[in-house]
């Protein structure tokens, strides 16, 4: 989702559950004031981190209207501070002075670093060298540096069903809540809130876990759930807000705040994406114990920022059998050092910095200094099945950059025994490259996973059935 396009309803979905009853009782004016306060708190926290790290933004930049570097073909749109071109692409200027780019000849970016070259410069030649030498290096140099270090001693979680199972559309529906084992059950403590859909007579069946729920849908069963059940699979959704609020204003709450005792983050502390990954892995713990589901055949998926979380979760926890990050963009599936749509500078804004470790801010405005790129995160999933998707009109997420990242990760899949992608040429819209464990599709359309669900299920079935 482009910056500054997060509406009030969308913000509600990012709040911890404890805040939502109060939100529902607010007047429109009170909600606007609440949102403004969250934004002020987030900006103050980001500024504190930037000062701690010595990160500065350029001073003396002209206004957007007067900026001589502003693309000439873009115009402001009423009701938003963003600017747009004739194709509908959003244009913003990052705080380090760069405007959004959608011209391939100007996308630039260095050649992606070879994931099979060690710090010493020696090349990885065997799977054993990958597992024992190179993969740990990428986890430390790229994941910990940018997404933060998951702290030792995270709390145990115990799960219970909330009320009896219900039925919907022929499925058994179970609401499950995981709470930390610590006796200090503070209102701000993290929780794992999961909705589990089970086919009739389910016993150790594959399960697809979606980061986030189905908001705004009136169907008894959302279509992706119905498609999974038709295959005899289970489907689960895990809410992110109860794990960690999607805002820099909430870093003193949730699991990050719990582990820090409510103190502000240090630069290398984990960000919200890593916190969500922790919670998603705890949900997998439950699925491993439930007799109806087979956690060894659990796939994780998410869309947009939730796609970033899905990819990171699969990279950090090798128990996940497969992953599908949909339209995940920068710090997800698109090459970050490439200047197209969403960039590092956009993620480093007050609306996205909290996803990452504080140290991530040191790379804003100096992208080439980053110790890796999106293909490193993809490579950490290998050789497990990974389905990368974009949309032709979702240029903010950079579908071409997502394909290039998959191409750059391909050598790791090949080293570990998978045939890899069948081509290095960007496929035509709706043409699915699904012959191997590393798969790609760029659907005709925009920022949505909807067109890709049937293709995903057909491809995933080869690995979990």
UniProtKB/TrEMBL annotation:
InterPro entries for the chain: AB_hydrolase_fold (IPR029058), GCE-like_dom (IPR054579)
SUPFAM superfamilies attached to this UniProt entry: alpha/beta-Hydrolases
4-O-methyl-glucuronoyl methylesterase-like domain sequence ranges: 195-417
Keywords: Hydrolase, Serine esterase, Signal
Annotated Pfam families: GCE_fung
Record protein name field: 4-O-methyl-glucuronoyl methylesterase-like domain-containing protein
Coiled-coil region: none
Gene Ontology terms, MF aspect: carboxylic ester hydrolase activity
Statement: the UniProt record of this protein carries the keyword Transmembrane: no
Biological source species: Rubrivirga marina
Signal sequence interval, chain numbering: 1-19
